[in-house]
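Weekly sync notes, structure subgroup
Attendees: PM, AL, DS (notes)

Item 1: joint prediction request from the bench team. They want all two components modeled as one assembly rather than separately. Inputs as received:
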Amino acid sequence: MQTQFPPAAQDALAAVAAVDLVKVYGSGDTAVRALDGVTVGFTRAQFTAIMGPSGSGKSTLMHCLAGLDTATAGQALLGGTDLTKQSDRVLTKVRRERIGFIFQSFNLLPQLTAEQNILLPLELAGRKPDRHLFAHLAEALGIAGRLSHRPSELSGGQQQRVAVARALISRPEVVFADEPTGNLDSRSGAEVLQFLRNSVRELGQTVVMVTHDPGAASYADRVVLLADGRVAGEIDRPDHASVTEALRSLAVQR
Amino acid sequence: MSAVLRTQLRGVAKRPARLLLTGLAVLVVSFVIYATVLAQQITKRSVLDGLSGTPAAVDIVARKGTLTTAELATITKMPGVAETAGRMDAGGEVGNEYLQIVADPSTGPLAVSHLVSGRLPTGPAEIAVSPRTVERLGLKPGSTAKVSLRYDKDGKPLAPSSLKVVGVVTGRDDYGFQAYAAQPAVAQMSGSDALNQIDVRLAPGADADGVRQQIEALVAAAASKVKDGAKPEVATGAQVRLEEAREKAKDVDSLFAVIGLFIAIAVVAAGLVAASTFRIVFAQRMRQLALLRAVGAGRGGITWSLAAEGALTGFVTGLAGVLLALGAGHLVPRIVAAFGPHVASPGLPVVPFLLTVLLAVVLTVIAVVAPAFTAGKVSPLEALRGAGVTAGRRDIGKLRWASGLLLAAAAGLVAAYVVVNLPGKHPKDYDPSLNLLAVVGSGGLAFLALIALGPVLVRPVLAVLGAPIRRSGPVGRLAAGGVGGAPRRAAAVSVVVALGVTLIAGCLVGGASIRVLADRESSLSSPADYELTTKDDPIPATTVSQLTGKPELTHVVPYRRLLVKTGNGTELSAVDVQLSAVPRLAGLDVAAGKTADLGPGKVIISDFMAGNQGLHVGDKVTVVADKRSMALTVAAQLGDNTPLASEMVIDPSDMTKLGAPAGYTGLLADQAVAGEKGRADGRRALTDVVGNHQWAIDVLADQRDQIDSELTILLAIALGLIGLTVLIAVVGVGTTTALSVVERMRESGLLRAVGLSRGALRAMLTTESALYGVIGAALGLLLGVPYAWLAVQALGVNAPFALPIGQLALVFVILVLLTAAAGVLPARRAAKVSPVVALGAE
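Output from the run, pasted for the record:
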């Protein structure tokens, strides 16, 4: 419940870590320092939430850690690999096999069915899908009956659950979720978050989630707070009240 | 200006490249139209610059009536007349070849020919020849030719005159059988004093009208004194020259009218492409337009402003195309002049300039109407919902279904009409125009049906043809899915590709069928590489064995020809050529019976003879030659003529029995060694043996090659013109891919985030582009081949149906490669964008 300094980034238990990560957009007068030297580690088999006011750099941090965006300086370590130094070819492989990503919206390709969308990363990798895992995910996410439908025929909640299934089907080292419940009603959102937490508990999955919603953050094991591109604190075993309080104090500080 | 229009124009001003991209097809078409106009100007001016038939110095012309040398003499003495030239020609034969001796002074302002080498002929025993005549007839300067100029009343030639060739002159036309001499000499040669025309040059200061009236009176009086005389027309030189210019210009105009037809098709294609690209562009602006509607803009206002944008696009791209064509049109003569030939400059045809730009505007406005109307209907809520993608609607609505099926039914009915009314094998009085028009009409209706039903056809065609692509891996599947997911867009673009391919397929199939027909006919008239013929000097058997022994020749086959009378009195030509010995006659089109059955007492008859005499295989026919008669049984009837311009083929023993001399009338031979040298060697071998005999050598192989190459050139030109439509189609595919890449930016970002590499994304987009080509080419072949067959049949020339499968497959492959290439640049641009930026795109 108190803020603590984040554990050492080289911790063997860290599935993914940032070391002095810097990201600058634009140049000269209009340069924006989205990340200003972030050092943080995310523990394996844990559900971590990244929170902060808008403009704090939380989405940017996630994009850099997932290899979707290139950092200006510093290191983004996935397991032992420094993603900032890798070629696009390697990063592509990483995205296919070692990372799962869930966006806030527009997760699915409109012309593919739910099943085809879920199996897409494996297809791109040329790997055969694990049918047991697939069946289990479909069942657990409650979409087993909608697998042959196109995204336009699914509700928002169902679309997100399909996206979750896609993120998990390749058994990634880390699952990144960027405001996954932002566009969902509270019940659908709760279902998705519950499932993410279960995957951590039962499958040993590592999940890193960016959110601005204290209710969503309460599903996590740990919350990392960002403000103005820097780590501003941490909450262990968060609950709604502690998170809300921490956010308020961050806001007041500005 | 309305607020909506202002907003749109600002958007256009921010990204002018987008405007050009949308109207690229219209730009290309405007360029081509104006370039063709300029080409027509260049051609006309260059043609008119050339030698006119009537020299510029000619002031008065008397022609088209009864004129003789007497009038010529009187006119020459008239006051005010400086010079006259009487135009006449004498026709004669050198050996077996025709020679035309044209009267021309070859010197002075009234000459239509001029000396190149040697000297001008003097007197009635000398001639000068044109350069091609030297080659073709072998009349070299210094040699003497025996020319039969006079004939008796039965048409038999009298004793030939010896004419010495003293020089070489060139005139306007050189067909290879022209010689020139002075007019008095030609009059003596032909033995006639009739003139075709009298050209008069006036002295400076002469009274032109007065002289003309005098001449008119003179020739009228002279003609009235002659029985059946026709009063000649007297015109000024300027009038005649204008007439000739108009004739030549008419030829140029009719040529360009045909080209114009192909361009019209390309204009239609450009319109289709423009409509499709506008639809995409407007769809991408859906959020913007919806915002305008949410803020209070009316439906009509949006539709009008979008149409205005279309007009502006048409104006800018049309103007750009025309200016580019103007630049090219003025550059080309300068470049060509550097290589030698002088080609006229096209000038600046103003009216076509304005008309072309106007056409571009009209075309674009028509193309933009439907998309603008649809875009104007956007509901204001779309802005808030954040829609940004064109509808992936799979269905096409009842109206489109109905009209499509109706059009298809109409096309089928018209085609059925043609099939029912096809001519038989040998039609009499058959006018193909109606049937051909019906074929074109049916084709047009079928194409409209294709446009209407296009989106529905995309998925099935893709399912069949896209199977190998889909099986090739996830990239292929994604590409096929991307194309199949937007069937309207795919159909819009593929339809234009189909148009181009239909035309190409029609051209190739028609060309192949006509080529087979030409081959078939030429193997009847030119069954070997060389032919030796003689009129009065039969070829002895010793010559035949001499030639058979020559290594440069092979398949030496002699034959005799005899004119015989048949049952109903018709006189027909019979030959005794051994069909099995001549390779090209081995595969004759036999209507009935077997050619192998020919032997003593039998005859092979032509189709004409069968019809004329009412004969069938097995019937007996009596042939009479001189006083001998013989009864022959018909062994076979050919589908066409019998070879060597005859009507029947009989056995050599029968021919001898009918009284044909032992010496041969002709001889066929092939070159033993292929190639130019082999052909020249064979010809030399024949010339050596011919020596001083009056035998004519015909290099049939040359004639065959010439017809072949003429067909090929014609085909190449037609394909080149059709290539224009294909170019527009490929441009359409490129712009569609480029625009849809922008629209699917987020999709691309998602794919990259999920693990698609840059190269794979490029491959996916290029494959999508290629798939448009696959669908279009498949539909084009499906339409083009049957219609080509129908058109060939409707021509009524009994042409066989030849399917050049290799060429058609090549066309398919080339189209797919071209459309894939069109997608390369957009694919590269898409792959360069980082996934995050792509995902954040709107």
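Discussion: The longest strand of chain B covers residues 628-638.
Action: AL to compare against the crosslinking data before next sync.
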